[in-house]
Amino acid sequence: MRRLLCLAVALLLFIPSPAVSAGHSTDNDAITGGGIFGGGKISANASGAIEIPFSDLPGLAEDFTATWCDNCVYVEHALHNVSQDTGTEVLYFHRNNDIEDPFGSDSGDSWWQRRYGSGIPPTVVFNGDDLRAGSLPGEQSLDDEFTAKVVRDFDLGNGDSQFIWALENNNTTGAFVWSLQYDSTHATFAEAAGIQSWLFVLEDSSYFPDGGNGLEDYPNVVLDVIDLGTESEGLYNLILPSAYDGDDITLMLIHELIPLPPSTDNDTEGSSEDSGFLPSITLMAALSVVAMAAIYRPSRSEP
To answer: Can you identify the CATH homologous superfamily of domain 3-17+19-295?
Structure first.
């Protein structure tokens, strides 16, 4: 049994049970963050563990949308088809503080603004570094274009992304333990200033029949984006947010490559202590942090 599965069993025993852009434009200069990867996800309704080798990670698409946006429907249908065909994980960011759209969030808006600017729906970003605005197809259909963008080679070398979700008996809080194992000498990581991990809290499907675009059911709505910091492993005590409707909260782990400042020389040699393969989280370390989490229960924990 792999180390993460052993850790999962131990944890489960330890913790009690306003304009719309119709055109086609690409402006990657607007992206200020680095690429993103990850996408492992789990239902928040039960404890469990996820471990995904880099070679098996899904493609990621982020869609900036709104319930009143007619042109967004074409994009969302194409994204749905691409997701079905390729396993791509699609995250839907809705406009925040919009009287016609109830699904926006402060943290989701902060994530989008920081990385991609203000934006006009529909705008889609693939793997965090390829921005595509508008809904009109180019030489290819939207399905074909989106597929080509999301499945392009994104070489991460050897490693894996893993986490454990330990839901407490109250079904509203739990411990999220994550670990990222990667080769820091690999070019993708050596050319970055670091890696920041994020916990995305999603609602699988939200029913809103009053939306102006007639979709009614809105999938994978981003409810919260939580900064887990730049360490390769750690624990976060999570208070689950309320779903818009139903009981279908999902947790997803995303890793963001932090770009080097433009004026900084890229020294890939580094010191011996921050190069090479970074180990995954150990059993004793995880049990220690979860033990502390069981004792210390603040009303809202900081990552």
So the answer is: Glutaredoxin (3.40.30.10)
